[in-house]
Amino acid sequence: MIEHINMTMLTDFYELTMANGYFETGMSNDIAYFDMFFRKIPDGGGFAIAAGLEQMINYLDNLKFYDRDIEYLRGKGMFSEGFLEYLRNFKFECDVWAIPEGTPIFPGEPLVTVRGPVIQAQFVETIMLLAINHQSLIATKANRIVRAAKGRGVMEFGTRRAHGGSGAVHGARAAYIGGCIGTACALAERDFDVPALGTMAHSWVQMFDNEYEAFKTYASIYPENCVLLVDTYNVIRSGIPNAIKVFKEMKPAKMGIRIDSGDVTYLTKKARAMLDKAGLKECSIVVSNSMDEYIIRDVIVQGACIDSFGVGERLITSKSEPVFGGVYKLAGLEKDGVIIPKMKISENVEKITNPGFKTVYRLFDKDSDKAIADVITLDHESIPDGSEYEIFDPQIVWKRKKISNFYAKNLRVPIFDKGVCVYKSPSIGEIRDYCKAQIDTLWEEILRFENPHEYYVDLSKELWELKHKLIEEYKE
Amino acid sequence: MIEHINMTMLTDFYELTMANGYFETGMSNDIAYFDMFFRKIPDGGGFAIAAGLEQMINYLDNLKFYDRDIEYLRGKGMFSEGFLEYLRNFKFECDVWAIPEGTPIFPGEPLVTVRGPVIQAQFVETIMLLAINHQSLIATKANRIVRAAKGRGVMEFGTRRAHGGSGAVHGARAAYIGGCIGTACALAERDFDVPALGTMAHSWVQMFDNEYEAFKTYASIYPENCVLLVDTYNVIRSGIPNAIKVFKEMKPAKMGIRIDSGDVTYLTKKARAMLDKAGLKECSIVVSNSMDEYIIRDVIVQGACIDSFGVGERLITSKSEPVFGGVYKLAGLEKDGVIIPKMKISENVEKITNPGFKTVYRLFDKDSDKAIADVITLDHESIPDGSEYEIFDPQIVWKRKKISNFYAKNLRVPIFDKGVCVYKSPSIGEIRDYCKAQIDTLWEEILRFENPHEYYVDLSKELWELKHKLIEEYKE
Questions:
Q1: Which residues does the UniProt record annotate as the domain Nicotinate phosphoribosyltransferase N-terminal (chains A, B) (predicted)?
Q2: Nearest-Cα residue of chain A relative to residue B213
Q3: B27 and chain A in contact, CB less than 8 A
Q4: CA nearest A158: which of B250, B80, B130, B29?
Q5: Which of B243, B262, B289 is the last residue of a domain?
Q6: Is residue B29 situated within a structural domain?
Q7: How far apart are the C-alpha atoms of B109 and B99, rounded to whole Å?
Q8: Is A160's CB within 8 Å of B21's CB?
Q9: For labelling alongside A446, which of A395, B183, B294, B338 has CA 20 to 30 A away?
Q10: What is the pLDDT of residues B171-197, one digit of tens each?
């Protein structure tokens, strides 16, 4: 039920001080455009994966200030009664566009744009960033791990090390979008249809007088799918021999062993040989000890005999880089129907934002269907298929590139129209399939874990010229 | 409202398969003892801080399987109807002991012990670990950052980069326990009394025709406490001069500036000089750009003029080490009122657990009130004050130590008695004060960020002898 709680007050306090400020100065209904984008791909990877949009939509669709919220805010002694009344009658009225979940995304692209009364478009910053940052982080990490596993299944096993309940459940959802085959978390299946699995802990084995009895009892209760944890005492001398004995006696329909400690390359090779020798070639081997994409890559190279992986803390916290740094910046104002582009100027060129109401096109090669480049354009622009088209590096003046033999796809879809949700999230399975298909359109060089090729995210001529005109104006 | 949701199904699926297994084999009511403990202090620190107990209690107090849960489980096709009926009538019946929140804790100590029917004591593993791991992680990290700030205030600013809503809100709660002075998260104040603060984003400044107008408008609305964000355009050439002008014109009761980018040592020295020269010595300087304990320590050493820090992603995700590795292990069974100690044997000596029903005493020096050592004992043992007392290293046979001139304090308190909560959490302010006072009992050498002195966590003679007897038995 995590997704249906009212999270309206899950916001940075400054959203409220600013909202009250806009209300008091009569600026509430000034129309503003805000973009959400990120600057850096976690783990030095070549792309990230968009996720969290469904939760963002739920938040926005349920924005409501209850009496308890109003009382709390009144108690702060800094908000006008008029503003509190406005909040009591709050009705979301913004337009929202976003890149759907499962899409490979790149730095600088407007993942989400909100257009509407500044009092509202500013207010939704925190929850929007929270939802998209968290799930994009985990989906991106999960996909790295899944790709390292080269077709072997990866289960998300991290609930106990997650950062709170939504860290666990939304994390499991994002991990599934990124390509995991399931999760250990029951709530993620009940509420988000992520397949949940799990068999036994070491304590189950310890509860019985001996390992054989523990295994035999389990096999008698779960004859359909019997995965035995073989490392409570000693994998080679005790766990595997007892498992083999029980499998032969009980003949479960599906059988597997899980190893949760020790040197998995050595142990799985040994285990595979023992199982095969016993005629149990169909018995699968699951490994679940401090895995991530690097360790998985290494043990596969070393010839470890593993059918699937359980990945815990290093996935659910994205341990090697636990932050997805999405930001939310003002891109424009609208006065009398005319958009006045805004941008943040910085000494650091990478922190200069792109001005105006924008969208993103992905250009695909007509022959190979591979993605060639993304182009950020002003929203009113279109890109005719096939014709020669020139794209411009956001920072470096002399870097431009002509593309031909392509077709273009606008990556963004409308999500809210004047506060009304006009988008229906696909099923989680559809999102996961879409994600896989989209990653298949990326060149292999972009998929490297280290030093990937940097994918082109360029600007259209019109946006490039607007940006450089504004920079020149600012310098004067 | 995050804390009142029913989280019963926020559990690893294997807790359910094992529960059904115990039910089917008639072992449900076998009495088991489980300990939660951790093995490694995050960031190589000298101690961690216990947190999350209040949320753990809420979870346990609200354990209930609803129709929706039962239907979901029935749909899995692997659970007996008898078991589902048991869940429908589930009533928590365990005894629970724990170390209160805010206490400095060390590896190997039983932070929580659960005694009760194995079907229940096993089931609560996941949510218990989730609650304690998450908040202990953040409280520990926050305390490092707070200590680095040497008396300057530290605000938690990380909501937008947290791992989900409970990552943000429970994280803000834990950060406050660890010594932060407040949070940016409004929901954390509404629900957990963590003081929330916040003023403006860059977009506020950009919404106006110029910076001066943006500042002046803000000061007119918030004359009591006016903190201006001075780095939207240029801190030295524009932000500070405009802030000074507005402060002089508007004379807010409290005034401050915030710098969110750039070289904070250089900028804050320059800003301080400009403010002082303008006669605004009382204007405070807040800095909020990618801070953590190391950067804070460095900029203070370099003489940066900072009155308080806002710390975002590196605190709320504990970026440098985002995992607190608490585990939950079987420590004993009870048959006919007699406890049969259990332990997990491992080739890796650090993974060998301590057997039996245990507690933890902290021994304080009678003269200085400083903590000398912790001793894990069997629960029935007592430690008479002052008398000479010998403690034993858990692994190394020849390492033992005699303590005298001390008084002993049992760190644990009863939390549940046969399923009934018998503990009332202190207020968050009390927990925070308690935490600070307890850290003051630690020797300075333990407080170092790198290479701290390793605090003694030894065993009583009785527990040591029991442990080694079991190891000998196992080896035979």
A1: 9-133
A2: A25
A3: yes
A4: B130
A5: B289
A6: yes
A7: 9
A8: no
A9: A395
A10: 999 999 999 999 999 999 999 999 999
